[in-house]
Amino acid sequence: MAAVNPPASEIGGLQEETLQSRRAVGGEGSGRRSRLSPLRLARAVVLVGVVFGAAAGLILTIVFGLAHLLGIGGTEWVGLLNIVGVAFILVMMTATLLIVAERKWSARMQNRVGPSRARLFRNEKWAFYGIPHLAADGLKMIFKEDFVPPGAARLVFSLAPVLAFVPAFALIAVVPVGPDIMAFGTEVRFQVARIDMGILFIFAVASVAVFGATLAGWSANNNFGMLGALRAAAQMISYEVALALTLVGVIIVFQTIRLEEIAAFQDGTMWGGLIPAWGIFFQPFALILFLAAAFAEVKRAPFDLPEAESEIIGYFVEYSGMKFGLFMFAEFIEIVALSALIVVLFFGGWSIPWVSHEALQSWLAIDVGLGTDWAALAAAFVGLFAFIAKMMFFVWLQMVIRWSFPRFRYDQIMNLGWKALLPLSLVNLVVTAAAVVLDPTLSLALAIGLGQAFLLIVVIISADSPKRGMMAAAQHDHPQEVSCST
Amino acid sequence: MPGRTRHLPERKTMDLLERTYVREMVRGIRLIGGRWARNLISPRDTEHEILDRKGPSEVTTIDYPDERAPISSDYRGMHRLTFREDGRPRCVACFMCSTACPANCISIEAGEYEDDPIEKFPVLFEIDELKCIVCGFCVEACPKDAIRMDTRWSSRPTLDRGTAIWSKEQLIENSRPIGPTIPEGLDGSSRLESREHERLEMKRKERAPGSEEKLEERLGPDRRR
């Protein structure tokens, strides 16, 4: 073949070599010469665990420690401590780190090195995975010119970033991140506000966020900003309908709209301890719909039409400095808040599957011998740890989705919102309602949910490995070369 | 002309499963998430000659100012004036290069050796690297192999235009690490080229057996004349 057509054979030979080497070594379709070293994987897992544990410990120390010291256990003042512990430590810190993580992780996903220039000292050992970029970014934004375009509605222009930021931040207020504990005579909860509204509060606050985006685009006196604002308004209002309707199914199953009760319910099990009573087992289909609607609410790829940095810069096109920073930060806070919400509604909140909080507490108190008070604290730590771990998984998932998928076209967004998500969530609502009415013990709802989950898993398993998919594509494109190599 | 018509491959319509996008999402997440994990926790292979990566870390870019990819032996950038064994420049101030220069960046002032009535030498030989367009015409024009651009670096950025004008002494200094130039044709190649050859040989030995063809392919045939 090489003699007949040199240039073609060169290309073919290259592919041949690639395919052969992939095929020769891979074994189970991995196609890699060297695999991840288990030692490094273990080290990474331990490191992540230590970080999560530190965060959980910090929250526990601040909320419980201060409540115990100040003697305000059991009062509403605990909510104030939670603003520090949960809102600032957990949400704010995670969102701040996400600013770096987005840049660094996207680099890893695209086989790049990523930002590494901001360092504590000149040596590259002090790059710390790019985390000093936080400080660099913050300083940069603070010292940038605070520009207001001519013809802008000044008051609204200044108000819009706040309107975008505050609702995102307020979402976390009703989310319980840990179990209620009673230790050393101090009663503590890990939730900023314990209000009757629960999920309704989330709907209400989330729908305020649309004002931020819309007013930002409108007030800037910029055509592209206006386009972004229109897109934001249309998209967010459309998806709010589906977002709310998918959650109605969850409300019906748990028969409460208080998030702390939903979390406590999921601590139990169904069918005699066979299956944890997590929302995902009752409503897997609603989870998929909710994820889609929620991603659209956050306005990130693949739903980033209001921003659409490659066509219109989006609703915040005229913003600079810290006002733009607020929009950016609001986005990351929304990611964290949304992940927390997904965890509470569908993944059992702070609960560990099959082990209820009481069982864990009594095991720690009696079998391990910690005593009641320390056992309560340890159980709270475990709960906080579980919550943070689950939440970070969904933060990660949103990052991966954002960097994996292309932006939808505008009509596709509207079709998906109104023609797919809305009817499907209505169907889900009707089926769930019927199941709960027919069988108030929720067994039927669980069976239907497991059936849906089974279907989804079949669909997902039927997805062949991405690498094998690429191999098939290569064979399809260059059948001759491949046949040469075999 | 019907013989020239090319048929595009038939476009497959998506089935219902594909249109729900769920399976495609899972596929994408698996691919990108796997790459993320691999690249995040495994050490980066800093060998930039490898294009088709198979290791745990597939990161192909380099951490630029700290690491630099070697400049190709074909690279032409900063000028240098070659010199003879006794340290005199090979240049005979014939003005061929400054005549050939389309950017007018070479200025030469000729002088005569006291003991040699025939040969001239440059009293002044300056190149304004800000004007230079790196076309290489000066090198082509030179009859004495006195000017070359194979230093494998470019003129560095300066804050002062004056420092971008390189004097004769500086240009000869650029040739110092390479040594006095034996005229082409005496041994067939300059020392720079043989050093380059040595470097490649070293690389070849370092790399695992079997990768030699790939390196050759990557570097391409030697396009020097």
Description:
The complex is a heterodimer of chains A (486) and B (225). Chain A has 486 residues and is mainly α. Chain A has helices spanning 6-26, 38-70, 77-109, 133-143, 154-170, 199-219, 223-254, 259-266, 279-282, 284-298, 321-346, 357-367, 372-404, 410-438, 443-462, 466-477, 479-485, and strands at residues 178-183, 186-190, 269-270, 275-276. Chain A has one domain. Chain A is built from 17 helices and four strands. In chain A, the strands form two sheets. Chain A has a two-stranded antiparallel ribbon with strand order 1-2. In chain A, helix 16 (466-477) crosses helix 17. In chain A, 44% of the residues are buried. Chain B folds into two domains: 17-52; 72-208, Alpha-Beta Plaits (2-Layer Sandwich), CATH 3.30.70. Residues 185-190 and 208-225 of chain B have low confidence and may be disordered. Helix content of chain B is 29%, strand content 10%. The interface between A and B is large, with 44 and 39 residues.
Set out the fold topology.
The complex is a heterodimer of chains A (486) and B (225).
Chain A: H1 6-26, H2 38-70, H3 77-109, H4 133-143, H5 154-170, E1 178-183, E2 186-190, H6 199-219, H7 223-254, H8 259-266, E3 269-270, E4 275-276, H9 279-282, H10 284-298, H11 321-346, H12 357-367, H13 372-404, H14 410-438, H15 443-462, H16 466-477, H17 479-485
Antiparallel strand pairs in A: 1-2, 3-4
Helix pairs in contact in A: 1-17, 2-3, 2-13, 3-11, 3-13, 4-11, 5-6, 5-11, 6-7, 7-10, 7-14, 10-11, 10-14, 11-13, 12-13, 16-17
Chain B: H1 16-20, H2 22-41, E1 80-81, H3 96-100, E2 106-112, E3 120-128, H4 137-141, E4 147-148, E5 165-166, H5 168-173, H6 191-206, H7 212-219
Antiparallel strand pairs in B: 1-4, 2-3, 3-5
Q: Any key phrases for this structure?
A:
heterodimer; A: 486 residues; 17 helices; 4 strands; disordered N terminus; disordered C terminus; B: 225 residues; alpha+beta; Alpha-Beta Plaits; 2 domains; three-stranded antiparallel β-sheet; 7 helices; 5 strands
